[in-house]
């Protein structure tokens, strides 16, 4: 299972619970590339792909987390850039929980975009 987005603006979390429960019980692995638990929609904040991945774990499934704030995504990005000194790199994002915390854990400075999730 690849979790990269959510239709939390169209469906309730129970929709995903019913859909994912059989896979979790069967041991199907899950890869979450967008761990944001909250997303902004036209109707306000709703649950994101990260919350669906948490639900999958609650159902007994195994999730590999690779997006922000997890260190692997920062290490991969820095490798693509030729591994510059971390003090020369700034992580920019709209989520304190994901973007700013992730940059900090990766040893990077950060800049918060104040018009997003916060």
E-strand count:
7
**From N to C, what is the helix and strand string?**
EHEEEHEHEHE
Q: Gap between N and C termini, in Å?
A: 28 Å
Low-confidence stretches: none
Helix content bin: 25-40%
Largest sheet: spatial strand order: 1-2-5
Number of domains: 2
Largest sheet: 3 strands, parallel
Residues in β-strands, percent: 15-25%
Number of helices: 4
**Radius of gyration in whole Å, from Cα?**
16 Å
What is the approximate shape? flat
Summarize the structure.
It contains four helices and seven strands. The protein has 118 residues and is an alpha/beta fold. The protein has two domains: 2-65, no CATH class; 71-112, no CATH class.
Fold and architecture overview:
This protein has 118 residues and is an alpha/beta fold. The two termini are 28 Å apart. The protein has a three-stranded parallel beta sheet, covered by helices on one side. Helices cover 37% and strands 20% of the residues.
List keywords for this structure.
118 residues; alpha/beta; 2 domains; three-stranded parallel beta sheet; two-stranded antiparallel sheet; 37% helix; 20% strand
Topology:
Elements: E1 2-3, H1 13-26, E2 30-32, E3 38-41, E4 44-47, H2 49-58, E5 63-65, H3 71-80, E6 90-93, H4 96-105, E7 109-112
Parallel strand pairs: 1-2, 2-5, 6-7
Antiparallel strand pairs: 3-4
